[in-house]
């Protein structure tokens, strides 16, 4: 059973939601049958590739959501507290978001190489606990190599345009699904869950999807009864 | 949108169904957005890897379905006629089915290399028009190379056990879906169609799946209204 999670690597609630999903999956009876795929979603496609200044997160939030600096700081304090409650050390004083398109391309390379989840984890941590520059090719390369990707291949991907189509396809699908915020979970292609949710709620969604997953709607035959299609039987 | 087709390469109705599906797809407005995946299904897991004798198809059918030789010949004549009507030249006088496990492993290699449909077509034709031996590693290699696979890699796969898990996973999923005969089409993971069906019927299923494909069932929030999960918005 596939769980697709649209997410960005500069999205604090996505990182919190990742931990909550992991907690849900740890309790899910059929976890071994679950395939998790991280789908690309850029919160800001216009973000610069140059590293943002550190320590101005409240100012950026205030501008983005049109609120006061105090309100923005309140959001940051709230996120930091929730993150701590799930074991994450958020350092908004260090964070410097930037353009994430290349990070998403690498996540597609990592999917093909079987290390997507470790790379997603590493990129989220780099952004929110370490203040690394998520647009920088050298830093991206170092992080990708850390999780087992081949340095030569990573540099080739970053220098070229491989996986561009995959990132755009994820974003196109997100638009079709009316996804405007992340994280967004799609379980078995059928159930949608928006935002960072409690493990309990995610677990119930997994249970429900599992219990109904083999149900196919059969397309009825044309014409008269007995006019079924021909098949070869075991 | 994904269309998965469970099928065997020694299944005459599967080959007919392939043509019918191709005719449906040619008329489908969103064909460019359709990804076709051929799923493994062995009609006879106990089939020998040694080549069957040619020209005894009626006898084999009679044994399998417990009918008379005349009835079996009637089935063959019917299949040959239907095949001709969709442009296929069925030569049951040449056909010699055998174990297809390795052919299915190669189809998974071909999926990874982007040439699955050409290989599926080539294997079906080899069986039903040319009487080639679908269990024979040399003949399989020649057919795989014809559609563009690398000979060294093909021989490595055949000599080892790569893609065994993929074949078994397809068959396990077929069992979960109660698939006991092929071809069996699953459109967008939601609609099931059993047997070789008319292009019109397949087209209607594609249309219906497409028109409903973006509909996700949203899992409602826990607790009080307003207690939605937290998300980062664009």
General description of the model:
The structure is a homodimer of 234-residue chains. With 234 residues, chain A is α+β, with helices and mostly antiparallel strands. Chain A has one domain (2-211): 3-Layer(aba) Sandwich (Glutaredoxin), CATH 3.40.30. Chain A is 48% helix and 11% strand. Chain A is built from nine helices and seven strands. The first copy, chain A, has helices at 12-27, 57-65, 69-85, 101-113, 116-128, 137-146, 151-159, 164-176, 199-211; strands spanning 2-7, 35-40, 181-182, 184-187, 191-194, 217-218, 232-233. In chain A, strands 2-1-4-5 form a four-stranded mixed beta sheet, with helices on both faces. In chain A, strand 4 (184-187) and strand 5 form a beta hairpin. In chain A, helix 2 crosses helix 3.
What is the radius of gyration of chain A computed over CA atoms, rounded to a whole number of angstroms?
Answer: 20 Å
Q: Please, what is the oligomeric state?
A: homodimer
CATH homologous superfamily identity of chain A: Glutaredoxin
Proportion of residues in extended strands of chain A: 5-15%
Low-confidence stretches of chain A: 223-228
- Calculate the mean pLDDT score of chain A and round it: 91
Number of domains of chain A: 1
Report the principal-axis shape of chain A.
globular
Report the end-to-end length of chain A measured between terminal Cα atoms. 26 Å
Q: Helicity level of chain A, as a percent range?
A: 40-55%
Structural class of chain A: alpha+beta
The helix-strand sequence of chain A is EHEHHHHHHHEEEHEE
According to CATH, what is the class of chain A?
Answer: Alpha Beta
The largest sheet of chain A, given as strand count, sense and whether it forms a barrel, is:
4 strands, mixed
CATH architecture assignment name of chain A: 3-Layer(aba) Sandwich
- How many beta strands in the DSSP annotation of chain A? 7
Most extensive interface, chain pair and sizes: A-B, 51 and 51 residues
Helical stretch count of chain A?
Answer: 9
């Amino acid at each position: 059973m596939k769980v697709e999670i649209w997410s960005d690597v500069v999205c604090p609630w996505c990182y919190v939601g990742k931990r909550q999903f992991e907690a849900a999956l740890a309790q899910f009876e059929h976890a071994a049958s679950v395939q998790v795929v991280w789908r690309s979603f850029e919160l800001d496609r216009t973000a610069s590739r140059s590293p943002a200044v550190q320590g101005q997160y409240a100012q950026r939030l205030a501008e983005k959501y049109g609120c006061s600096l105090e309100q923005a700081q309140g959001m940051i304090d709230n996120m930091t507290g929730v993150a701590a409650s799930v074991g994450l050390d958020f350092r908004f004083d260090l964070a410097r978001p930037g353009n994430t398109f290349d990070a998403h391309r690498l996540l597609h390379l990592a999917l093909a190489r079987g290390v997507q989840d470790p790379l997603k984890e590493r990129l989220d941590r780099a952004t929110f606990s370490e203040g690394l520059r998520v647009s920088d090719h050298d830093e991206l390369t170092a992080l990708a190599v850390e999780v087992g990707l081949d340095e030569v291949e990573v540099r080739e991907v970053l220098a070229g345009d491989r996986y561009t189509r995959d990132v755009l396809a994820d974003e196109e699908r997100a638009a079709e699904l009316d996804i405007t915020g992340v994280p967004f979970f799609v379980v078995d292609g059928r159930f949608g869950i928006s935002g960072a949710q409690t493990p309990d709620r995610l677990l119930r969604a997994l249970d429900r999807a599992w219990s109904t997953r083999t149900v196919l709607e059969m397309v009825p035959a044309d014409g008269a009864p007995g006019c079924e299609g021909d098949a070869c039987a075991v």
